[in-house]
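User: Before I run my own analysis I want an independent prediction to cross-check against. Here's the chain; please return only the structure tokens and, at the end, one sentence I can use as a sanity check.
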Amino acid sequence: MNGVLRVNNVSKRAKDFQILNKVSFELGSGEIVGLIGPNGAGKTSIMKILVGLTKNYTGEVDLSGVRDIGCMIETPNFYPYNTGYQNLMYFAGLNGVGKKKVGELLGLLGLTDAADKNVKAYSLGMRQRLGIAQALLKDPDVLVLDEPTNGLDPEGIYEVREYIRKIADEKNITVLISSHLLGELEKMCDRAIIIKKGEVIQFMDLHDEKKEKQITYVMESLDPEAAQKILKENGYGVVSQNGQEVRIRISASEKNDVAKLLMLHNVVMTGLYEASETLEDTFLALMKD
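Assistant: Structure tokens:
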């Protein structure tokens, strides 16, 4: 991985409360990384440290490989009775950026047709995309997004997700994103950093994880209790049984053996398919005390 940004042993305290404790991670060029944790885990604190909004911490944030960082932390604010174009031009002026960049970003975020409409008439999803466009005004190579899909309907969530993926792919921008919508992060991200009580507790490569988990199969049966008993007695690794499903860990070559074994005992198997643990499964398991 070509490292762009490195966080090394970053800690932060507020009076007697440890907000962050020796947090370390690295972000690679052009990848989308999900920052995941329950409320109060320290996600926003990490993001504020990265973008320079918080100075009171120990440890090191190495930005030597970063030209500029764009961010959208919390809900973006705009002048509601000005158009999307006017709002972006205002912020462009503050950042020394011209009309050409504003037009390019409106196109990149799918807002060209809405550029001359007042922001008051924008949907929440359109405002979020305008906020991302604002964060991209200075051509950053790292983009930090805190809950960019918060409060959106399914269509808005899909739109924002696709535009973030487009930004990373077309502009080779590194994106660090937090969200409570774990299914969306799994579709969007290359990796995930899971934090709990201010500490990083697991890194997940969301591509490799899916491949590694394919040794787990979901077996459906009309008599799951009997199926589970027979499989256990014959040495197969039964993971769990829920409703009509039995989860087992077997190799691909053993699928036919399982089917024949159950048929021999007159247990009807109605389905057998590969399963992989989702990001949500892993997250919920790690959050248990």
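Sanity check: The two ends are 33 Å apart (CA to CA).
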